[in-house]
From TrEMBL, chains A, B:
InterPro entries: Diverse_substr_monoxygenases (IPR051260), Luciferase-like_dom (IPR011251), Luciferase-like_sf (IPR036661), NTA_MOA (IPR016215). Residues 26-386 form the Luciferase-like domain. NCBIfam families: FMN_nitrolo. Belongs to the NtaA/SnaA/DszA monooxygenase family. It comes from the Eukaryota. It comes from Aspergillus pseudoustus. This is Luciferase-like domain-containing protein. SUPFAM superfamilies: Bacterial luciferase-like (SSF51679). The lineage of its organism: Eukaryota, Fungi, Dikarya, Ascomycota, Pezizomycotina.
Amino acid sequence: MSEKQLHLTAFMRPVSLHTGAWRYPGSYPDANFNLTHLKSFIQKLEAAKFDAFFMADHLAVLNMPVEALKRSHTVTSFEPFTLLSALSQVTEKIGLAATASTTYDEPYHIARRFASLDHLSGGRAAWNIVTTGNPESSKNFGKDEHLQHGDRYKRAREFYDVVTGLWDSFADDAFIRDRESGIFFDPEKLHVLNHKGDDLAVRGPLNIARPVQGWPVIVQAGQSEPGRQLAAETAEAVFCSPRDLAAAKALYADIKGRAEAAGRKPEHLKILPAALIIVGDSLEDAKAKRLAVDALVHYDSAIASLSVALGADASGFDPDGPLPTDLPETNASHTSRAGVLKLAADEGLTVRQLAQRYGGYSGLAFVGTPESIAAEMETWLREGGSDGFTVVFPFLPQGLDDVTQRLVPELQRRGIFRKDYTGSTLREHLGLPRPTNRFFE
Amino acid sequence: MSEKQLHLTAFMRPVSLHTGAWRYPGSYPDANFNLTHLKSFIQKLEAAKFDAFFMADHLAVLNMPVEALKRSHTVTSFEPFTLLSALSQVTEKIGLAATASTTYDEPYHIARRFASLDHLSGGRAAWNIVTTGNPESSKNFGKDEHLQHGDRYKRAREFYDVVTGLWDSFADDAFIRDRESGIFFDPEKLHVLNHKGDDLAVRGPLNIARPVQGWPVIVQAGQSEPGRQLAAETAEAVFCSPRDLAAAKALYADIKGRAEAAGRKPEHLKILPAALIIVGDSLEDAKAKRLAVDALVHYDSAIASLSVALGADASGFDPDGPLPTDLPETNASHTSRAGVLKLAADEGLTVRQLAQRYGGYSGLAFVGTPESIAAEMETWLREGGSDGFTVVFPFLPQGLDDVTQRLVPELQRRGIFRKDYTGSTLREHLGLPRPTNRFFE
């Protein structure tokens, strides 16, 4: 087996980010909110030796026009901690990553729930640290205005310090439980945090033993300037969305460089771009599948997405013709418009197909045969574009089965993905060290 | 089978409230924080057809002198939502009651987690609504001072209104999931709460379908004046701690009367006093077991508890003699001191034994044979003292096995406890109606 290995996590909230996925032939329309299906998905991912099952999160029903909203399969979802705790009991090895926002919650609650999930799962928890910026969420938490971006990141950094400090409340060997003497734990091995900072004041100690992993694995999803810096200082896995290998290599080098500058070992931070994976018998077959799932995106919401990407109202264009060449000037992102134009030219898409691509899933995608996708992934790994991927499924169960049953064996054949778990904790799967307790050596 | 039936819930956080329990011969010293043990306990309780598994909660390591703290088996515990979600996957019928405070959390989070637990468990969730009054907790949430008692209850009432309103965000039949038309849900069946009150502002809607039970069962534990009133208006099960049948009957009549005055049916509110149950082969055997577990309470913390109960410093008394007859005057509760004096006289306890009773568990207890305890329970049921009990175990697993294997069959023989579940939700176990959606008929 070669030195450098891929890490694979599965993006599972929603189970597909593609807005047409729930309508795909053979799919489960309620997959996102059906425990039986979710159990089957995680068990298949574990059988394929995935590193982790990854739950994004939203603290609101997302704001969109009712015509789009009523078509969204994401309006009802399980809450991450309750779902992952349930799934911890039907799996043994796969990591369980929950997103938890630092904006509208309390560090004592967050520290406690992740510690509890880590204990219940035998050391498989990860915390995806996010800040919450959408005004719909702020209105669910008594705030008319949401925190500014910079303020949210400042609070997030302090929140991280408090949560990790609370996890270190007890030394790993604090609990004696000596029935004879009646001593349950050694009070010398309990630390009271007494944190008082700009945004947070938390006394501690946490009322739960130190997590199995010391700390659950720290995940970060930011791509902004403060997001990259926070990731470089704190993250052990980074979820990101580069458009292509060139962008990925730049991001990879930047974040690993910042981590090194912050005194960390770059290999203790894994970069895992999100990638839609569509496996076919041939490249044509895979592309046809993509067009088929794209075609299930409702045109009204699709055209709105295309208009945003173009920075111009696309609703008057002929849906079944090519993109007009005489687009009006835009003040919006030129990079974004250039991407649309390139895609239209490369794939010869009509306005409708373009719109449905943007309304469906327009991020990084690997579309091809098991062999071609595995080769692409190996290139990303070898050339410093990523340490693995956060896999987005186009539809389920078929799209997930295609990955676990066809792509993973090809990755294993190439020697870049494990054939079995060698450890039992998520840290062990990812090759990350167990943090020492800052208060007890 | 007779008309009126007992309901039994098990008090499981900590697994025993008795402070000496973890030291008892044959006990599991780590039972409170060992998932394997907790799974085995809940499966035994389900096999015995208990209504629910009940988790109290604390948002801090409880404040006590280090000499007592280091002897406490409660300093490390699982967080309720993560534990109950995990246990939902190893059980099928038993209810799952979580305590969640309204003082340092957000109604959107609470509504969402209980809805998620209710869906994951197929309609078995209950919310024990509490307010948090101890300063140790407030300091873990950035507050130097805790809210005053009245203010906490005012916020709790509004919090309840918001949480139940959020649960009603979607009509029960909102989700269509029509693959053909692409309509996932009917937007006419989505309600935006738009709550703006004295303490809380929450827009909604909740991002999860209406709970299986409509609303999870509402539990209340208050005995104070505002606690009783809140219970009468909102609770469907009341956890309380009367000392004896006379006190229980008064409390029962008071709360049911208040419920009726609030326009509710008294039978839609179940009164379930907490009761320690110690089963023996004879009354003497059961009493000996109680003395044995009491004897495991450390004398230093025990004598402090006795001093509080007496309203006088007991540390200078002869531990192995009787309680002195010349107690100093007290400004503390005369009822409390009278209780100590009566107990000392009735059971002929030494100062040490008295102290260990107060330091161990001094609330309502049924101590006897399966037959005598079942008869007592039937009296409470028949005479309007309770609708069942919240069972506290003296030690585990033996004390739990004694209840499930010896007491429950005797209750079943008397026809006052189910031999099997007749429904699948906790509401069905308790005989409670499913709430209608306030926004959709």
